[in-house]
Structure formats: C-alpha cells, structure tokens
Amino acid sequence: MSRYKGVISYDGSSFCGYQIQPRDRTVQGELEKALRKIHKGQHIIVEGSGRTDAGVHAYGQVIHFDSPLEVPVEKWSTVLNTTLPDDIVVKSVEAADNDFHARHSAIGKEYRYRVYTSSERDPFKRHYSHYYPYKLDLEAMEKALGYFLGTHDFTSFCSAKTTVSSRIRTLHEISFTQEKDELIFKFVGNGFLYNMVRIIMGTLLEVGRGRKQPEQIPMIIEEKNRKLAGKTAGPEGLYLWKVFYE
After folding, report:
1. Of residues 53, 66, 137, 181, which has the active-site annotation?
2. What separation in angstroms does the CA of 202 have from each of 114, 152, 159, 233, 240?
3. Cα(159)–Cα(4) distance, rounded to whole angstroms?
4. 48, 84 in Cβ contact below 8 A?
C-alpha cells in the first residue's frame, strides 16, 4: 500500500462542497467514485486539506490517498483525469510518506477572493466573482486590512457553526490588487475558521461603502461577537489557492 499526495483544481459551482454527503454531489464523492472505478470496486478514501463550501472553488486543493496498485507515480494524474468529470482536474501527483496527511500536515493556506464592481452584471462571472456594483473607498479598505494581520481570536469572523475549540489564528498577509473591474484579495495564514475569509470580506465591503470605519476592526476582533462583523460574502468569489507544508 502506497500513499500519494495530489494537487487538484475544481470549479465549485456544481458541487455541494468538498466533503462527501450521502445524496449530494461533492468533490470528495467524485474523487472516491473515480478511484473506486480504477480499483475495480474497492473503496479508496480521499482526505483533503480542508472542506470548501458549496460554490467555493479551488486552484490548489491538496489531497492524499492510499493505493495497493502499482501505478507509476507520473501516470496517476492521467489515470485520474480520464475518469473524473470535467469540473475537477488533478494537476499533479507525487509519492508521499505514510505519515503525511493532507489536513494535519498543513502549516498554512492561501485563499483568494474576487469581487467585480462593474455597474453592469456579467453573466459569465456570476459563478466566479462576487458581484458588488457600488463605489468603494479602496483607501479605507486597505487601512482596514492592516488590523487583521497578526495573531487574533477570530470568533467575530467565523460562523456560529464553527466547532473547533480554539479560534486563534495568525494572518501573515492580506492584500488586494485591481484588474479592470475586479478586485482580487489575497489571504495567507496558518489556518482559517469556517467562513472566516467570507466574513472578513463582507466586513471589508462594508468599510468600502462607509458603513463601518477601519478603526472599528480592532474593537470587533476584541469583542468576539459575530453580530458586530459584516455579512458573509458569497461563496462564488472564494478560491482555495494554495496549501503550505514543511
């Protein structure tokens, strides 16, 4: 039995999230279905670095699985891609140590969030960028970003459904660039809570519209009260971009 580490991309538009569910189409479900076909009916469990929600995309999701088959490691991507549906692509596969775990071995992640602000709705972007057709104060938003950097208890910026015991996370980098009518935000940290990036984004958009002031961010963090932060921004703009390991 050999362990393999894979990097995959997927369009989350038609998935009910990453994690397998009994009656819904999921990324994990499609991966395990493909591996079951390759292994002639044997169930092969796939572990991911994290569970993306329905509608959330991935450019660099990391998975691992164990296989008894003697497939040359350089052939795994081709074997999987010919079996998987078109909205999942295996970008690379490599041999991994038996103690490697896609989730537990990760030391950090990068997420990106896309917002398009054109006054005219673009039907071709509706699944891939969050539509927000309002004038935004980018200077105020950039100022607000700085308050999120560092180590904080992000209780105010996670879903009430969050079940982990510690909500302390460290954000190493938050920045954004502008490309024509789109803003692309980059978040790099040692870990992220359930809906954390989307709630931060919802709060930043409120800052951009003047509904919140950048200077309020430290207070919102300190109060550990979800009701003080902004709305949860839509899933369509969010991408799991990269996962970091030692």
Report:
1. 53
2. 12, 18, 13, 5, 17
3. 32
4. no
Evaluate whether 64 touches 102 at the Cβ level (below 8 Å): yes
Q: What is the rounded distance in angstroms from the CA atom of residue 1 to the CA atom of residue 74?
A: 17
Distances (CA, A) of 41 to 37, 75, 220: 6, 20, 51
Tell me, what's the pLDDT at 20?
A: 94
Contacts with 60 (C-beta within 8 Å, 6 or more apart), sequence order: 7, 9, 91, 110, 240, 241, 242, 243
Q: List beta partners, residue 170.
A: 151
User: Does the pTM of the predicted model rise above 0.90?
Assistant: yes
For residues 44 and 67, is the Cβ–Cβ distance under 8 A? yes
Cβ contact 161:231 at 8 Å: no
**Whether 69 contacts 93, CB under 8 Å:** no
What CA–CA distance (Å, rounded) separates 115 from 110? 17
pLDDT tens digits, one per residue of 49-70: 999 999 999 999 999 999 999 9
Active site residue 24: no
> Distance (Å, rounded) from C-alpha 208 to C-alpha 202?
10
For the chain, list the domains and their CATH numbers: 2-96 (3.30.70.580), 108-245 (3.30.70.660)
Over residues 117-166, the pLDDT tens digits come to 999 999 999 999 999 999 999 999 999 999 999 999 999 999 988 989 89
**Total H helices, total E strands in the chain:** 5, 10
